[in-house]
Design goal:
Strand order of the largest sheet: 3-2-1-4-5-6-7
CATH superfamily of the largest domain: Glycogen Phosphorylase B
Protein name: N-acetyl-alpha-D-glucosaminyl L-malate synthase BshA
Number of helices: 16
CATH class of the largest domain: Alpha Beta
Domain Glycosyl transferase family: 196-349
GO biological process, one term: bacillithiol biosynthetic process
Bound molecules: ligand GMT
Strand content: 15-25%
Structural class: alpha/beta
Oligomer: single chain
InterPro entries: Glyco_trans_1, Glyco_trans_4-like_N, Glycosyltransferase_grp1, Thiol_BshA
Pfam families: Glyco_transf_4 (PF13439), Glycos_transf_1 (PF00534)
Largest sheet: 7 strands, parallel
Amino acid sequence: MKIAIVCYPTFGGSGVVATELGLELARRGHEIHFITYSQPVRLALLNPNVHYHEVIVPEYPLFHFQPYELALSSKLVDMVKLYQIELLHVHYAIPHAYAGYMAKQMLKDEGIDLPMVTTLHGTDITLVGNHPFYKPAVTFSINKSDFVTSVSQSLKDATLKLFQIKNEIQVIPNFIELDKNTKDSSTPCHRYVMANPNERIVTHISNFRKVKRIPDVIKIFYKIQKKIPAKLMMVGDGPEKEKAERLCRKYGIEDKVIFFGNSNEIDKILCMTDLFLLPSETESFGLAALEAMACGVPVISSNSGGLPEVNFEGISGYLSEVGHIEEMAHNALRILKEDAILATFKENALLVAQKFDIKNILPIYEELYEKAINIY
Ligand code: GMT
């Protein structure tokens, strides 16, 4: 199949999922065209089936806001015609589903009809899309998509509750390439660089937005390191990072917390990690938690959104009510204190992650694409 994938190219989960999906589809022989404003961070163009087309938005002083949707839909039209693309798969409703619909309409005018699949990722529904200024356009573009998927049951429920949706929403969970971890396991894990042998390593990875509750991460770690020797690795960048650094100084733990910024070497960081913290206000899925689990790292998370669909209570980690720092720290210590308990949680985390192996999830997307193309 010839498929155009529209996504955000940044470190966010939706872009990562879209990129990994496209790369795996390309490995399976499909022709994949990524269409976005810069090369997706995890995109390796080493496969002849992978193409990347940059959406360029010319700057014009009249525009206070440059019209990205217009440039994207025009690019989609051009690329569909040039490469005879058979299907559009847009990740994140805003503004991708809207631009995709416009492209479809323009193409229809030229006698080209192709299906569009929209995948909802989370904040496009729960935070941004739900804003009254966007809601009518988001509702419209979801309803005009030929097929709609959501990354968790929880996100599906939220979408149906918040929007007037006429379409079926198919839940297709996010996935992980487990083979990659086995392939890379020959790379040595330089744990000794980050911590002393007696120290546990706790990690958080995110875009440091408010929804991630970064101060909770620091507060939970503060309680952990009071009881056992430990280090905290904070990976990612975003608006809450500076506040987090200040909080570490306030608690006097700055020498135990390492801020890495954005990294392309998540696997190398996770291989050293004993415990992953994700105390978010909400997560439609929590891809970062799954990535940790795939490296055999148990997770302490909040019990909100799609997290209970990924992190299994008492098995791959523990879940607490949002903001329940005391309980999260207590559960973290339950996992970290004894080697044998930690080893069991690590094993279980990996077992749960296997449920989300890309090998199980990709055929579901392929089946959906085939159905969509055959209908058209
Ligand atoms: O977590 C973020 O703020 C980034 C956001 C995104 O759009 O990239 O992540 C969302 O999509 C991910 C991939 O499907 C999910 O794993 C995240 O849980 C979801 N984030 C939220 O719902 C807050």
